[in-house]
Amino acid sequence: MASDAARGKTALDKGDYPAAVTHLTAALKSSQSPLWLIQRSTAYQRIKEYDLALADADNAVLAAVSRSRRELIGTSQFRRAVALHGLGRFGDARLCLNWCNKYNEKEKGLTIWLAKIKQDYEDAGGDDAECNKTTVKEIPDKVEQVNTGEQNKGVKENKDSVAKQAKAPAPAVAATQTRTQTAKDIRHEWYQSTSAVTIEILAKGLPKESVEVTFEEGSLDVNFPLLAPGSTYNFSLNPLFSRIDPAKSSFRVTPHKVEIVLQKSTPGPKWSSLEGTENIQSTPSTDKTPAAATKPQTETTTAPAYPTSSRTGPKNWEKVLGDEKDDEIEEDDEVNGFFKKLYKDADPDTRRAMVKSFQESNGTSLSTSWGDVGSRTFETKPPEGLEAKKWES
Q1: 279-307 per-position pLDDT tens digit
Q2: What domains does the chain contain, in order, with CATH numbers?
Q3: Is the predicted pLDDT of residue 9 greater than 80, yes or no?
Q4: Rg from Cα positions in the chain
Q5: Residues near 46 by Cβ (< 8 Å), separated by ≥ 6?
Q6: Whole-number Cα distances in Å, 180 to 168, 187, 205, 227
């Protein structure tokens, strides 16, 4: 049976954002997982509840920092920027994108949003505009959410409550809790063979029946209670670096750790990290014929105009910019529209800069400044875990 977190992710992927909020809210009652907060922030942003989206993104930053998850810190800063843009705070949004770039320069959609917010910043009046002032901090204060009914409306920061909690004495049970049983001190290690990836979560004295592990083809979710009342540890990977076989994957609980074995769906290729950058959709459980399992990555009637190191293969630049159904540029329709409009309305120098930087970098860089592009040659910088190869027609 799928967990609330898994159902929330499925609803988010299907575009059922209210359902995603409901399921993820239920999941977050057991653990303040940075990944779940990021996903709920995305759902709120899609239904234009920007205050709620910002609150979840702020808390996601705090949760990711506490777990030292650098890539999730970057994604959380990205979600802050998107929510702040929706609130018309372009200066704060631009600052959060800079922090995102510091933690993960390969964050999906970062290049497009940098260009979009830069344009909106300038259109609003530049440095002198009130909406372009910066007030956010890199590490935000914790935000308390106040839910009213099923709509989950009304978010405010309750500093007095947080201060009282900080001054209040810790529960008596915390004094007896061992060091390895606090969430911030539990760590994990991983290694791999050609056929499997093994993850070891180092935690002592866990009852076997208390450990819940959910395997899906593109994700892993681990939950178990800690000694402190109401405290739960969550370890989530979504998406995984590559597809796994849930039926052949397994886990076992020992006195010192939880050992999880992820069976690779395709033996051989090595994983460069546990998490990937592209969602992995689960395949139907029955009738997995080759025709149903595979689909051409590109369906064009003409040859690609430019080479690229993108996982989805070469793209025709004009096709990308002109196809109303293309969803590979960015997850949000408003950004996709902005990107197409940017190229359509650009002057010849800007268009030359976009084409030259995209072509010379094999699709890994994009610049709109001819003054910068015209005087240098762009190098190919493939995504982490991929190798650049010469493109042949």
Answers
A1: 888 776 544 433 333 333 333 334 444 44
A2: 4-168 (1.25.40.10), 177-263 (2.60.40.790), 298-393 (no CATH)
A3: yes
A4: 23
A5: 15, 17, 332
A6: 23, 9, 10, 11
The residue length of the chain stands at 393
pTM: 0.44
| Helix pair 90-103, 110-123: axis angle to 10 deg | 160
Burial of 87 (0-12, 13-18, 19+ CB in 10 A): middle
Which is it for the CA torsion 112, 39, 181, 216, positive or negative?
Answer: negative
* CB contact set of 247 (below 8 Å; sequence gap of 6+): none
Could you give the CA distance from residue 151 to residue 319 in angstroms, rounded to a whole number?
A: 40
Q: What is the pLDDT of residue 161?
A: 42
Whether 113 contacts 339, CB under 8 Å: no
pLDDT at 173 over 60: no
* Interacting residues of 84 by C-beta distance below 8 A, sequence separation 6+: 50, 54, 90, 92, 93, 96, 136
Dump strand ranges (E) for 203-248. Answer: 212-216, 219-225, 232-237
Matching residue, tokens 């950004």: 335
Distance (Å, whole) CA 181 – CA 46 = 37
Residue with tokens 């072509």: 359
Sign of CA dihedral 111, 80, 240, 197: positive
Q: Which residues pair with 329 in a beta bridge?
A: none
